[in-house]
């Protein structure tokens, strides 16, 4: 992915979120605990997709 535009959307206790090219949001963990939470969220996403779509 070529990055033409990046904006920081926000920051929480465990991560920072960025909007890339006005179309995709990327969130980056600050520490190991945040990364572990992100892994849990990744595993939960398929189930949430079925509920909200």
TrEMBL record:
<protein>
    <recommendedName>
        <fullName>Aminoglycoside phosphotransferase</fullName>
    </recommendedName>
</protein>
């Amino acid at each position: 992915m070529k990055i033409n535009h990046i904006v920081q959307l926000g920051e929480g206790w465990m991560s920072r979120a960025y909007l890339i090219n006005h179309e995709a949001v990327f969130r980056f963990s600050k520490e190991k605990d945040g990364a572990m939470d992100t892994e849990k969220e990744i595993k939960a996403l398929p189930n949430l997709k079925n509920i909200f779509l």
